Amino acid sequence: MTAYETFAVQVAGIKRELRKFEIKPGVQIAILNILGDTEFVEAVSRELAPLIAAKNPDILVTAEAKSIPLAHAVSAKLGNRPYVVLRKSLKPYMGDALQSETLSITTGEPQTLYLDEKDRELIAGKRVAVIDDVISTGSTLQGMRLILGKAGAEVVAEAAIFTEGDRAAWSDIIALGHLPVWVNGQ
User: Averaged over 24-40, what is the pLDDT?
Assistant: First the structure.
């Protein structure tokens, strides 16, 4: 097995070693992958749920795929509040889907988010809390805001386990911690 550098985090009483990954020459981030980590998802959702509840959202919205278990767990802790997943590929059954383009920090490639036609009715006129695992550049968040605006929703909260990068840019985000970005090893 190849050795790699990690960054230690502790959030909601849980410790994890996040692998550092070079996203472009000289720039590294710590990769959080909550898929399959039930202990971690349960702990952070217990911490995030009351903070999100204080904003009184009607519905939760997340983007496919890594933050789906987080949205599900927060939903359950908020009395099974409904949640919607914005998809990253368009399926024929999605009907007249709304879309918005984002740029992923981990892939460096543009991605398109889609709101299924059936979910538009759930969101229209509702107070929405946007949930993500990590908010870094804000591109996904912006794409989510655009779709929700087109659908007639009001974003009342934006939440993540971690913010990343320029901490000042994320003063309005509900988050349990902050991850640095390493530039040229710094």
Answer: 93
